[in-house]
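Subject: complex prediction, re-run

Hi both,

The earlier run crashed halfway through, so I resubmitted it with identical inputs.
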Amino acid sequence: MSEVPSELRDEIPSFDSKPAHVDHGPIDWSGLTSIRTAKSALEIGSIVALAAAVFFGLEGILRWTDTPTYVFPKPIDIVRTLANQFTDVYAHHLWVTMSEFLAGYAIGATVGLALAALITQKPFAEKVIAPYVLVMVTMPMIAFVPFLRLKMGFGSWPLIIAVALAAGPMVMINAATGFRRTDLAKIALARSYGANTFQIFRKIRFPLALPMIIVGFMVGSIFGLLTAVGGEMVAASEEGGLGERLVYYSSLARMDEFGAIILIIAALGVSIYVLFYFIGKRWASWEA
Amino acid sequence: MVLITAPRTVQTPAKLRINGATKIYESKSGPVHALEDFSLDVREGELICILGPSGCGKTTLLWALSGLHALTRGEVALDGRPVTGPRPNELGMIFQDANLLPWRNLRQNIHFPFEIKRRPVPRQRITALLHETGLTGFDGSYPRELSGGMQQRASIVRALAQEPSVLLMDEPFGALDAFTRDEMNLLLLRLWSESAQTIVFVTHNISEAIFLGDRVVVMTPRPGRLARIYDIDLPRPRTIDMMFEPSFIELIQDIKRTVEAGGRHSVEVE
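This time it finished cleanly. Structure:
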């Protein structure tokens, strides 16, 4: 696509800007996708400069005030700890959290998407189910982890279930918003070629819903990650995990290591966000 | 001259026969008569324009012809067979806006009907049509990157690639500016002259209807009834200059009067 003059940018739908006509359900998360990538050297330079200022500024203040590590760890110490311990200790816990997250998310997202596709076909079913979905969206699923521990023992299943319960409704509520969009002219177009119901779903309804489905997947993954880490803080499996490490290191006031874990979690969250940003750019750039 | 020539209607039997078409929509404020006892024979190979004010049931009629909407009463027959559902192999439809799928590029949009029908894509024919409509080189572009005229040309390629024997066009150039509209009308006439297609063209633009049509069917305001059929004897190929000739302008005024008279008539009846 050719360069778009900045004064016209609002007129041209792209993944960068949120279009005005997007119809949304009770919870609209599409604002989360409106990241803008840096364009000029000045922008990139400013971003790097700010990051460096925060990093070294903090380091400087902590050294100057002679703050002990157990009060606030120094950024350079955190990075050094992370580099030294990553392969021996942290990689294992990262893997534990990731596997819980990925398994739960796969289950939750699949079920959420399927349910969204199903209920939007039947307005009656949607009306009946909607209140329960809302309850599930607003309920912190971390609360169920200790309960599930009691029932299911010390494996990873309680956390997988909690992640699925947190991610699923988020995927469902956004995907349902997408499936509820019906463009009658486009359905008529497909029907005029003799399309059957399944073809209309696959070739019209699904692509039409895809931008909102991707938003749902992204919000669901963020909630899933929060639930995985939070659940581990409450009641981890015997394998540990990043959340369990947070509680462990903070209880021993080992703040360098605590900071290193925080850094890993932050990197994980940002990676997930960036991943979905590019998925959206690739598969839904025609809109949202 | 004592040459005996049979009337044209006998030589070319009706391609589409509309018989007593009536459509009543149920709305919250009571039933709405969109179309009332409308009958018409469309001849094979003709370009017939259906003209009427907004809300006169033109689109309702066209959708009934396409088999997408059922009629309340009456019937439509294509080649003698009643139309009860979509007839994808015989009927092609061109919509008000281009109705391209925004997530597909032009080539994928044009292939879309063949995917649905699970038929091989006639690549040579599509290449020729793209060339003829001035879209060569744009087949990788997405609809939002193209002008309204280009989008509508792509939708014409999409319809013609399937070689339907009847093309139903629902105010296809209504959203375009006057210059683009003239250009599109000329393009349509050229494409039509190269084919044996029957075209039913719905419009609310009187000069467009006269310029394109072999016949212009004037409808009354709601409920849509047939007011009058005009035979247009302008020679072909038609040129834009014809639109400025006195006879053309007289015809416009005559049709305008018919539409208005039809409106009074329907007020009296109700």
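The mean pLDDT of chain B is 87.

- K.
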